Amino acid sequence: MSIWFTEKQTENFGITMKINKTYVSEQTEFQKLDMVETEEFGNMLILDGMVMTTQKDEFVYHEMVAHVPLFTHPNPKHVLVVGGGDGGVIREVLKHPSVEKAVLVEIDGKVIEYSKKYLPEIAVDLENPRVEVKVDDGFMHIATSENEYDVIMVDSTEPVGPAAKLFEKGFYEGISKALKEDGIFVAQTDNPWFTPELISQVFSDVSEIFPITRLYTANIPTYPSGLWTFTIGSKKHDPLEVPAERFHDIETKYWTPQLHTAAFALPKFVSDLLK
């Protein structure tokens, strides 16, 4: 008998995958955590019934969260990742030699523990000497930081449970305070097919705080609708005005210098959400 997992992405739509085995099914202090092996996408991390990452397509999300802001900033040295306990964003951050220190603040230590065990190629750099891992509340870490980071990346789940406050305007105001005078931040902001109101609200909130605010997209097949958005807020540096000589060679599977710019070219129904 085949076993299938279905993520109910809306009340009327879901995505289904065949499961070979279940490694972990646990209620942590913060959320329901499942780690499974799928037939199509390899090992997969699920939080509160939502797909977080898989071995097959993880590189898209992690590369686009990390490389767009890091290449936009002329000299990123001190980087913060809020969430991201699987370690994928950290792995990509460390491909930039200018980064002297990357701080990861993940609220759920179990995400880190099981990612190291079952997603080792994603969590590969969590013990790198340039990385500081804190099992703590990212919201509170931001609230107590000031003029500290060059780039902040918010690698959160969807806006439910412990991640809901990471989509509030007050959080973005805290991020602005935690950034240096030419700092940049990026956050995943869900998809335009099922959560258009969220994209509109976040873009409006970030635009009131950051003089340069832009939206870009990527194709991630295991995320709702497959079309995913990221909102970037910058104090000085425009991701659409990065000089060509700033792009240095790094090993990627999705991001390229050409895609860096192309990702900001939005379908009209998406750009309409930003008006």
Describe this structure in words.
This protein has 275 residues and is α/β, with parallel strands linked by helices. The chain has 2 domains: 51 residues, Spermidine Synthase, Chain: A, domain 2 (Roll), CATH 2.30.140.10; 200 residues, Vaccinia Virus protein VP39 (Rossmann fold, 3-Layer(aba) Sandwich). The protein is 25% helix and 32% strand. It has 8 helices and 12 strands. A 7-stranded mixed beta sheet has the order 8-7-6-9-10-12-11, with helices on both faces. The chain has a 5-stranded antiparallel beta sheet with strand order 1-2-3-4-5. A hairpin with a 2-residue loop joins strand 4 and strand 5. It is globular and about 55 Å long. The model has no long low-confidence stretch (mean pLDDT 95). Belongs to the spermidine/spermine synthase family. Pathway: Amine and polyamine biosynthesis; spermidine biosynthesis; spermidine from putrescine: step 1/1.
